[in-house]
């Protein structure tokens, strides 16, 4: 099995957050001697505060403050004991009031994160299954990680996709006792609501379905007694729901509350719910403040507060409706999202708003897809109507400037969010007028000499290599074997090429470069659904090729403009072919486009290291050994040279049909063992066409008759060349014999020898088994890819599976 270095999702997140921090739009620090909710001081400048989650402003209510101060005086700053043993005197009155609000058994937890950690592993039992909405809050996702160790099935679906949810329920209904669907009541970025009525219909249709809803962003500003959005819709909680609310955020204090209509389950969670049992309880000040807030919630005043906030939400909606600001989701929650599309536009706009005296939040990856960057605005009771008016006026002024600064427009932003195109918009003059873009879907339409000037010697994507691939990956039976081919060249006014690129659109497995255990788990699901977690991707190069697929003359003064025009064309192709993501592959880690591509809505992920061997001008084995380290020379003599005489090497250029059959069977063995690079099986047609093509040859190892009387082929390397580069593209092996005779290492060595015989200047050894290749003299080159996806579902689902 090939050893491959895989990307870590956290590394990708770290780079995105670092870029935003460097842009001065996140990781800010408030200053000043006091806070009042309406203003916040940033960089020494008072700013209107449109980023709070205290929507009713209760955190500044004098009654809550006085209760907290009095509790500290009477009971101290904390009561450092587990609540399982004894609770401090203020707890019981609070619990009684919260129970009165909901009319169901409740549990109070230190915060929602610890609450989920306490409840989920207790409520979800052996034999159950869990389905996560991929936008459910991180704290819920994190709490479900422990379930996998218990053998509990956990799956993830796209955000609020009821068809996908029902499909998952059907797949699990004969395997699970209860099926828990976990979601938010109000989602924190766009302010959209969970489709509760649809969920209730599904729970009637499938009695196994239970709902676990985190409604912390729906709390207080909605519902009877401020019990939240979910209660405002359902009115009464059925037995199959666990509901989480919060005593912080809009409630104004600290802590969280679980509402559990099932009394038996409530008792089990109370008796042993991890952090409930072993963690310290809420401080007296927090409980006292929460009690003061509960008194407000249980009084008619809560409806007056809700009404006041509703008035301000409606006013904001009214003002925005008079503008062409791209409001992504029109709703009645206090959370709004103005889309900017590209991170560059989001950074620019947020920075302008902060400089103008308005604190708003940047919405960025991974909370939203990187191409769905935007500005998250929250409305609270602290905001005056005139504050809201000046906010909208400021956005009307600064938003067009941010678009102009970053070369985008409303049409592009609407398209990136899947919103209807604006009725009237002015497309910005682009910086592309002096550039000529040529596009075709067949290499046959491109001048061979011109193309090879850019790509000869770089991989299997010179003119001949692409003509070969077009012949193989068209007119096939299976959809994964039919690729679309796309060729782009961009020239200046003098017809000089600035940029050129071959691309394919094809069905790919989302876990193609995931860790082996992740792919194993997904392949089990593909037994029933062969195309589970697959998407059409528009990619530089193809899954068959590796190397510098993008030719860019970065010394040309218009190379960035050419790259921008290239990306616009990719978006157009992506829409036309129905691709879900764009993959720009095989860049060196220290490339010059990193910042530019991120600002255009791409995230970087680490690829396995590329392996190249360039020092192959040796005339003897001894000269070859001299390029290796002392340790590698020892490895060569012990693990490779000692086995060389066990084999007969044949170089076959015109294999018979029976030989093709044999070689294909050996390739299939490698494919089945190689989940580290998890692609669809290549069709047999590929190998048949290799046998017919002048540029391809087969390096075949056969065990000598004294070792294997039948003289079976036990290894084959499928090789081609581009210019002076020799490329072993695929390998086939008998895995049982490989363990005995180090077949793979022998194939690598014989490949290097063959390249030397052909006077090649480089061997492109690909990006798997880098440890083995390095011992034979290969140089490892760190590579990255840049990805832009319609949503984060695949990335987050794969990261979830990786961790579990």
From TrEMBL:
| Cofactors that this protein relies on | pyridoxal 5'-phosphate
Q: Keyword Transcription: yes or no?
A: no
Superkingdom, taxonomy of origin: Bacteria
Q: Does the keyword GTP-binding apply?
A: no
Which UniProt key words apply to this protein? Aminotransferase, Transferase
InterPro entries for this protein: Acyl_CoA_acyltransferase, Aminotransferase_I/II_large, AON_synthase_class-II, BioF2-like_GNAT_dom, PyrdxlP-dep_Trfase, PyrdxlP-dep_Trfase_major, PyrdxlP-dep_Trfase_small
Q: Which GO terms describe its molecular function?
A: pyridoxal phosphate binding; transaminase activity
Start and end of every Aminotransferase class I/classII large domain?
Answer: 51-384
Membrane-traversing stretches: none
Could you tell me which Pfam families the record lists for this protein?
Acetyltransf_6, Aminotran_1_2
Outline the extent of the BioF2-like acetyltransferase domain. 631-773
UniProt protein name = Class-I/II aminotransferase
């Amino acid at each position: 099995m090939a050893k491959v270095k895989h990307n870590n999702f956290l590394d990708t997140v770290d780079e995105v957050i670092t870029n935003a921090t460097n842009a001065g739009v996140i990781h800010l620090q408030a200053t000043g001697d006091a806070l009042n909710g309406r203003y916040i001081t940033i960089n020494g400048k008072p700013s209107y505060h449109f980023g709070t989650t205290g929507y009713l402003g209760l955190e500044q209510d004098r009654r809550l403050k006085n209760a907290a101060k009095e509790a500290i005086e009477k009971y101290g700053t904390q009561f450092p004991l587990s609540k399982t043993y004894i609770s401090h005197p203020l707890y019981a009155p609070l619990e009684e009031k919260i129970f009165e609000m909901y009319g169901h058994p409740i549990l109070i937890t230190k915060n929602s994160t610890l609450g989920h950690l306490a409840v989920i592993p207790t409520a979800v039992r052996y034999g159950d299954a869990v389905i996560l909405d991929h936008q459910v809050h991180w704290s819920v996702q994190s709490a479900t990680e422990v379930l996998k160790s218990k053998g509990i099935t956990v799956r993830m679906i796209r955000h609020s996709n009821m068809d996908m949810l029902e499909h998952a329920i059907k797949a699990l209904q004969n395997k699970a006792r209860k099926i828990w669907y976990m979601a938010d009541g109000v989602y924190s970025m766009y302010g959209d609501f969970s489709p509760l009525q649809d969920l209730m219909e599904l729970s009637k249709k499938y009695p196994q379905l239970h709902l676990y809803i985190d409604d912390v962003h729906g709390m207080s500003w909605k519902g009877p007694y401020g019990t939240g959005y979910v209660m405002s819709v359902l009115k009464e909680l059925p037995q199959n729901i666990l509901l989480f609310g919060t005593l912080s955020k809009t409630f104004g204090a600290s802590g969280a509350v679980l509402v559990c209509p099932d009394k038996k389950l409530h008792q089990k969670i109370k008796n042993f719910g991890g952090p409930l049992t072993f963690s310290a309880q809420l401080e007296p000040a927090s409980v006292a403040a929460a009690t003061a807030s509960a008194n407000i919630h249980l009084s008619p005043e809560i409806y007056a507060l809700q009404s006041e906030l509703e008035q301000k939400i409606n006013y904001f909606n009214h003002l925005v409706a008079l503008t062409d600001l791209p409001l992504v989701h029109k709703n009645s929650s206090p959370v709004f999202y103005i889309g900017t599309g590209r991170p560059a536009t989001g950074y620019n706009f947020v920075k302008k708003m902060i400089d103008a005296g308005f604190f708003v939040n940047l919405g960025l990856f991974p909370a939203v897809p990187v191409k769905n960057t935007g500005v998250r605005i929250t409305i609270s009771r602290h905001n005056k109507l005139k504050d809201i008016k000046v906010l909208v006026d400021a956005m009307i002024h600064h938003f067009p400037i941010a678009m102009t600064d970053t070369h985008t427009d409303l049409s592009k932003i609407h398209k990136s969010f899947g919103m209807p195109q604006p009725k009237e918009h002015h497309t910005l003059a682009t910086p592309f007028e002096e550039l000529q873009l040529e596009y075709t879907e067949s290499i046959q339409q491109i001048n061979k000499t011109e193309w090879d000037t850019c790509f000869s010697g770089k991989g299997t994507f010179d003119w001949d290599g692409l003509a070969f691939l077009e012949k193989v990956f068209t007119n096939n039976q299976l959809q994964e074997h039919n690729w679309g081919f796309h060729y782009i060249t961009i020239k200046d006014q003098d017809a000089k090429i600035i940029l050129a690129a071959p691309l394919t659109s094809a069905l790919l497995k989302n876990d193609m470069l995931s860790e082996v255990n992740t792919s194993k788990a997904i392949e089990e699901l593909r037994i029933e659904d062969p195309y589970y977690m697959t998407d059409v991707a528009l990619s530089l190069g193809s899954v068959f090729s590796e190397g510098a697929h993008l030719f860019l003359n970065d010394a040309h003064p218009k190379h960035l403009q050419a790259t921008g025009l290239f990306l616009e064309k990719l978006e157009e192709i992506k829409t036309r072919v129905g691709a879900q993501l764009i993959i720009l592959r095989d860049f060196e880690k220290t490339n010059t486009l990193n910042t530019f591509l991120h600002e255009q809505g791409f995230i970087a992920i680490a690829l396995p290291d590329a392996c190249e061997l360039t020092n192959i001008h040796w005339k003897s084995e001894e000269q070859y050994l001299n390029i290796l380290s002392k340790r590698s020379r020892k490895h060569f003599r012990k693990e490779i040279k000692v086995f060389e005489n066990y084999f007969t090497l044949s170089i076959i250029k015109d294999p018979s049909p029976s030989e093709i059959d044999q070689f294909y069977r050996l390739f299939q063995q490698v494919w089945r063992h190689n989940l580290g690079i998890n692609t669809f099986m290549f069709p047999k047609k590929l190998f048949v066409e290799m046998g017919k093509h002048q540029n391809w040859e087969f390096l075949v190892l056969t065990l000598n008759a004294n070792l294997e009387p039948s003289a079976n082929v036990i290894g084959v390397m499928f090789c081609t060349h581009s210019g002076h580069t020799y490329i072993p593209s695929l390998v086939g092996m008998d895995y049982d014999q490989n363990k005995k005779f180090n077949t793979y290492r022998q194939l690598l060595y014989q490949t290097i020898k063959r390249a030397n015989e052909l006077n090649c200047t480089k061997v492109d050894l690909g990006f798997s088994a880098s440890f083995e290749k390095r011992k034979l003299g290969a140089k490892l080159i760190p590579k990255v890819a840049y990805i832009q996806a319609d949503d984060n579902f695949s990335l987050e689902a794969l990261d979830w599976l990786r961790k579990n």
